[in-house]
Amino acid sequence: MPDASPLDPPDARLIDADVERAFAEDFGSGDATADLLPADAHASAALTCREDAVMAGIPWFDACFRKLDPGVMIDWRVRDGERVAAGSVICHLRGRARALVSAERSALNFLQLLSGTATITAAYVAAVAGTAVRVLDTRKTVPGLRLAQKYAVRCGGGHNHRIGLFDAILIKENHIAAAGGIEPAVTEARRLHPSLLLEIEVETLDELQRAIDAGADRIMLDNFTPAMMTEAVALAAGRVSLEISGNVDLGSIGSYARTGVDFISVGALTKHVRAIDLSLRLQLGS
User: Fold this and answer.
1) 67 assigned to active site
2) In the annotation, is 271 catalytic?
């Protein structure tokens, strides 16, 4: 499964749809507070990042403001994927005052969430530096924002696992039980979807050998100990790529990477996200 181009965001139509949903839940019948501002007033605003971070989400941020004021001027000092230091002013805006205050919360919600995803991904990628391991995301994403978060993972230097249930096959323990074993599950998967990457999750070294013999493209080692991972790498001997999943955190991922596996998938990249602290300050009439 090749990644999308690392910093290519999703199609603009998807971003617009994300913004539409955000506005629908925020605006309702309208912004009652913004009505206090003169309809023809203009303002400028400065966006500050209050902590060290990796940026992601600029296309969503811009789309929020342009949805309400197509003529808004947005001057970015950084790009998605770049690191910024705490206290940095990263963007200036100028446009209709009502549009700036009304779009602010949705725009910041997108930017702080996606920058949080990019920032934690960058920390995991740094923890495996010096190895050949690729850090992967999972399907444990915020509902409705999967492609946004997977873009943010790429901004942080990570890589995307499958996007959904349609673009790769991952045979897990319940699939194996229902199909009658690893071998019949693989046979049926190849018959039905011969062009898709086929990955099998295993829990023991015996299951690993059976998955190799069955012809898997990739094998996921679920909750293996480091010693078992090292044995698995020796057993696979380069015949199939290996992925680690389960009980992975910043404290353990480095030692796991040094066992010689190819991929480590981390649900925390998109599931346990802490938003980045951002502040947008507005000045009327300037």
Assistant:
1) no
2) no
Q: What is the mean pLDDT of the chain?
A: 95
Instruction: Identify the active-site residue in 183, 188, 203, 222.
Output: 222
Residue 145: strand, helix, or coil: coil
Beta bridge partners of 263: 134, 243
Is 203 noted as a catalytic residue in this protein?
no
Please report, for residues 36, 76, 172, 195, the alpha-carbon distance to residue 68 in angstroms, rounded to integers and kept in the order given: 17, 19, 46, 44
The pLDDT assigned to 69 comes to: 97
Residue 134 among the catalytic residues: no
Catalytic residue among 62, 201, 207, 243: 201
User: In terms of DSSP bridges, do strands 73-76 and 88-96 run parallel, antiparallel, or are they unpaired?
Assistant: antiparallel
pLDDT tier for residue 97 given thresholds of 50, 70 and 90:
very high
* Alpha helical stretches, state H, 28-141: 58-68, 97-127
> What pLDDT, on a 0 to 100 scale, did the predictor assign at position 6?
67
The amino acid occupying position 241 is S
Buried (b) or exposed (e) across 143-156, using 16+ Cβ within 10 A? eebbbbbbbbbbbb
Quick one: pLDDT band at residue 192, thresholds 50, 70, 90?
A: very high
Asked if 222 is an active-site residue, the reply is yes
Which of 172, 190, 258, 271 is the catalytic position? 172
Q: What tokens does 195 get? A: 């062009």
Say what the pLDDT of residue 4 is: 56
Distance CA 85, CA 114 (A): 17
Q: What's the whole-model pTM score?
A: 0.94
Cα 140 to its chain centre, rounded Å, is 9
CA distances 73 to 57, 86, 95, Å, are: 17, 24, 6
